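Objective 1.3, modelling of assemblies. Example input:
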Amino acid sequence: MFSRGCLRQASRVSSRSLPIRQTIRRTTTDAAKAVPEASEARLTAAAYVATAVAVASSGWYFYQYGPTVYAVTPAEHGLHPTKYPWVHQGFLNTFDHQALRRGFQVYREVCASCHSLSRVAWRTLVGVSHTVDEVKAMAEECEYDDEPNDQGDIEKRPGKLSDYIPSPYANDQAARAANQGALPPDLSLIVKARHGGCDYIFNLLTGYPDEPPAGAVVQSGLNFNPYFPGTGIAMARVLYDGIVEYEDGTPATTSQMAKDVVEFLNWAAEPEMDERKKMGMKVLAVTTIMLALSIWVKKYKWASLKTRKIVYNPPKDILK
Amino acid sequence: MTLSQFLSDVYSSFTIADAKAEAPPAEQADDKAEDAGDSKEEEKEEEPAEEAEEEEEEPEDIMPKLQEECANTTKCAPFKHHYEECAERVQQWDDTPEDERKGKRESCVEEYFHLMHCAGDCVAPKLWAKLK
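Predicted structure (tokens):
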């Protein structure tokens, strides 16, 4: 458009100023040659400018919005947990209840000295990992506050099925004081409460290296664990081979115990999982049948409508 | 998931299974009560470590061995190489006298992360095949 406009203008100028025909022809050809040269230079310049503007603006845009800015170093972020093929995470798979039983044993003998499990009652273990009598026996070993007696004093009584699993410390302050200021979190919902869930906890438990990597700065009182954000964790490695003795004879290696306890903690966080998956299966099965039925009914009802044929027979004597 | 497992899952989801809350006829619930008591006494984290040393026959974990193997595979070898190089640099830095040191002491955490990330992906299926 630019060039065409120029040409038109040039031809108009030449035809007005030069009356003689031949000269006109000659000069018009000259002008036609000369003027496009000038406009070509301007065009090139314009193209250069446009390209420069485009490159600069996209460069500016990339500078402004392109690169992701990480405010934390990888060490502060922590190593992403490795994904493990947990059996219970399949669509139709339940928890491995033998693993739950072993996991509870690990919790009780190892974790429970620092971590509470305050939202799990003894009764919830019944039929999941232990029998009634076993759970009753375990509950009775713990002491709970009884109702006030006639003098108004609160006595202690042995635990019952309806009691909750006792916490190792009276409150958070006591827990902090006993652990150099670090609060051992409650484990009832820990699988849901941590990014990475089961994988994170398993990696955390098994991920303590024998010695921190070269050059890593570990504050005093902390331990190096690559999976913990910041890599300095107050909890030391607790799972060592053979620390518990499984009653079913499973070799109690570090990874085996970690797997069992993580599965148990996953159960503690979502005890409804088995039931939920079963219900999901039922819902899918019933809705599939209902869908199939409704499709059949619809087809049945519409069959007469869909297969009918409307024929118009115009009267033959209409023009008469 | 095999077809038979799927079918048995479907079957079990339509039938009512009894929750086995009662102990089986042969009573072995009593021995559970014994080991329940001593867990209460453990207050410190160091104690379990001492206990482990007392054990006669310790089962050995295969996880460190698998990690070692995985770190040496062709896939993870470059990461291991990087980490070792970094560790060497740190060692050199430590060895030079204090007034001749240049810059800050390097941290190999990032290299270690890359190595562990690579090794972890390789370990996961192998470890799960071995665990119960």
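Chain B is about 65% helix and 0% strand.
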